[in-house]
From TrEMBL:
Pfam family, one: HATPase_c
Enzyme class: transferase
CDD domains: HisKA
Organism from which the protein derives: Sphingobacterium arenae
TM regions (residue ranges): 352-378
Recorded coiled-coil stretches: 84-118, 208-235
Identification of the protein by name: histidine kinase
Amino acid sequence: MKKRSITLIIWLMSVALIGVMAMQYYFVRESFKQKSQLFDEGVTAALASVASKIEKQEIFEFAREQDRINQEKFKADQAMRERNEQLLASQLQIQEKIKKLQRQQFDYQQRYRGEEENLKAVFPNAIHVDNAFYETYIRRKRYQSFINFNVDNKYLGEGYFDTDIRLTATREVPLVPAKDDSTRFIIPYFRNNQVEAMQTATLIPRVNSEISDQLQELERQLVMLNAKKLQQATTLFDTLAIIGGKSEHILKDVQSSMLLAKKPFRERLNIKFLKKELDRELNKRDIYVPFNIEVRDDQSYIIYETLQSNSPKSRKQLAKYSTKLFENDLNSSPGLLSVYFPNKSSVIRDTMGYMMLPMIALLALLIGAFAYTLSIIFRQKKISEMKTDFMNNMTHEFKTPVATIMIASESLRDPEIAADGKRVNRLANIIYDENVRLGNHIERVLNIARLEKENLKIEKVDVHINSVVAHVLDSMNLQLHRANGVLHTDISAPKDLVIGDELHLSNVFFNLVDNAIKYSKAAPEITVKTYNAKDHILVTIADKGMGMTKDQKEKIFDQFYRIPTGNVHNVKGFGLGLSYVNDIIKRLNGKIQVKSEKDKGTVFELTFPLKGASLDREV
């Protein structure tokens, strides 16, 4: 494979991998934003519900207290009421009806508040509009172009904004009277800070007019009775109710609001009830996150807090949500409830763990496949280069004996040379030797091919290692003598009988001795020993040649691999010898180890089990 093709494959796979990582990052980021938004909406709804429950709880407590006070007053005035029993009975009957209607009106108002809270929870931008404004500008489409939305964004910090939307008319037209008393809201839809569309929502009236009419009628009757008992008024409230001609429930509402507003904010707040309801509302919305509470009065003084931190910077880093307390007081809201979530981001990330693990596993699988593919590509490229070198070497090795044979044959065709018997005999010997050399090269290549196809026949007969080694050294003696080499032998192992193939063992020792001669820079100095260790015979072939590096030592048994010799080109071969040696030794249940240092020499140590020894025992 060409370098350009490999580069293109790597580039394409890298782009694909980066694209997958970018898509995963975008998906995780958008999921985190969505879950964070749902979390914010849930907490805001929970705070609004808690604030409403606190206000309701205060009203109910105050009502019970007032009932108790009224009962005590009733007991104190019982004697006087007995003198005017019929008047009091009528008054009490009317008051009971008024109380019943007031409760109904209160329940109706709570129902309206619930619908309004639900609308605000779904559409936070909903704007209340007057019915006359609705009939004039909204219902009549030709005047809708006069509607103007004024949006004020107030930055609260930590990425939060408080949006205030005011609805006005750019042109005044005569107002159309309202056709009913329903409560109406406008819901604008924004895009790029501009109103793209709007929607109307209609709720029930704020006050039940039928109940209000009944209350007015009963209050009128009560006023008539109170006029009769003016002289029996015992409190300033009774006198004001009679002299002012006001409805009693209105004065009671005013009095109740004034009494509640005058109470210290600390006394109005039930911390235990607040924490209990806040936990319940958050759990109802599946929010199980540790949080801290902070309550401030209208002067921004802290009334209660669970956040133990004096550092303003650390508070700003927390997710904060706030809502007003007792917002329906006559004056401004006397309190502010805030909730801080120290671990909001980590909790949201934990909830996303179920999809993070498969994504990470998939990404790791892709990276692993990418790396594995690249390793295979580079390995195949390296094998291809080694095979090319092998073909070049093989061509050169085959070319030399063929050329020699051709020259010798042409010489024999010369009549003058053919007449000289000695020269003919010498040329014939040259042709024979080169044929043997060529045959050995061919046999070596065929043996490697048979090894790869697993059809090389290995005989299992008795072989004396000492004899095989001695025979190989005798055959190599002439080659060693030509290289001016020195051979040291110690073939003295007392036990040398193994089960093996004599031919292939001879080839093994021949290859090792031949390498020792070829890879010696100067005159070769080779040492060959045989000795026993337990149930094994060991053969060591050591030289003082050029040696190997650690990296080269790990590759010498690979096919086609040849140790580079720099500028020296006198080392011939195919890079198949040591691969063949390693495979034959393994097939004969032996082991081969290599010890080598660069420029100091190499030692090959071969281990074979003796005949009758257990194969699972090690040296």
